[in-house]
Amino acid sequence: IESVENAIDSELKSNGVDIAASSNSHQPLSPPRNNASAETTVTVSQSSQEPAETVPETSNKPEGERLCELMCSKGLRRYICGNISHRAKLMEEIPAALKLAKEPAKFVLECIGKFYLQGRKAYSKDSPMISARQVSLLILESFLLMPDPGKGKLKIESSVKDEAEMAAVAWKKRLMGEGGLAVAEQIDARGLLLLIACYGVPSDFRSMDLLDLIRTSGSNEIVGALRRSPFLAPMIS
User: Which stretches are tagged as biased composition: Polar residues (predicted)?
Assistant: First the structure.
């Protein structure tokens, strides 16, 4: 706004207009003297009376839907982070929005990135990284709650499943190095549990590992999502 005001002042001064008396008011400025500027003024005045252009339908879509359609992982993370305090609203919007992505499974994996490799110390009290991890967990939970595509089970490419399995194994390895799954931070255990619920349980996860994750993750808060897992639900009564 300041740049625009300065540009206007400079243009008026170059045309000999005294702006000192009007600097504190909002009265219409007298038209510039040169013909080019006057012509521009007339054009703007006329165009303001013309009917507004038709806005493309896509611009009316909610931000979450638009970002998922574009497969914009960074944009979706920023959007969720900026609205993380409105969790209930996000949990209504994001699952349906993810369905619009061309490859939902791949897109979700891109969204969570490699935050799981960061140790417990990176998430100390008041750390800005806490909200970043909450965003990743919300996206994983939303993926499980995504509406049924209507064509059977959601297809997950083998390359995506392999990448997710490598992530789960690396995540488990870090937690074991920090004392084990039974003493993991709730947000860590929940994230790993959601990851394997979304993409499959790696072969080196024992039944006791799953039990430890369920106990430490506060699973009662995400039970609705866990029950929709095609991988985890059949393994647990």
Answer: 21-59
Using CA atoms, how far apart are residues 145 and 5, in angstroms rounded to an integer? 50
The answer to whether the CB of 171 falls within 8 A of the CB of 113 is no
Parse the chain into domains and list their residue ranges. 63-231
Tens digit of each residue's pLDDT (9 = 90 or more) over 8-66? 776 666 666 555 544 444 444 444 454 444 444 444 444 444 444 443 444 578 899 99
Token pair 């994001």: residue: 94
Is residue 100 within 8 A of residue 67, CB to CB? The reply is: no
Q: What is the DSSP string of 1-30?
A: -HHHHHHHHHHHHHTT---TTTTT--PPPP
Nearest 5°: the CA angle 207, 139, 158 is 60
Q: What is the residue type of 134? A: Q
Single pTM value for the model: 0.72
Owner of token pair 């038209």 = 31
Kindly tell me the burial class for residue 213, based on how many C-beta atoms sit within 10 Å of its own C-beta (0-12, 13-18, 19 or more): buried
The answer to whether the CB of 197 falls within 8 A of the CB of 231 is yes
Whether the Cβ atoms of residue 198 and residue 138 lie closer than 8 Å to each other: no
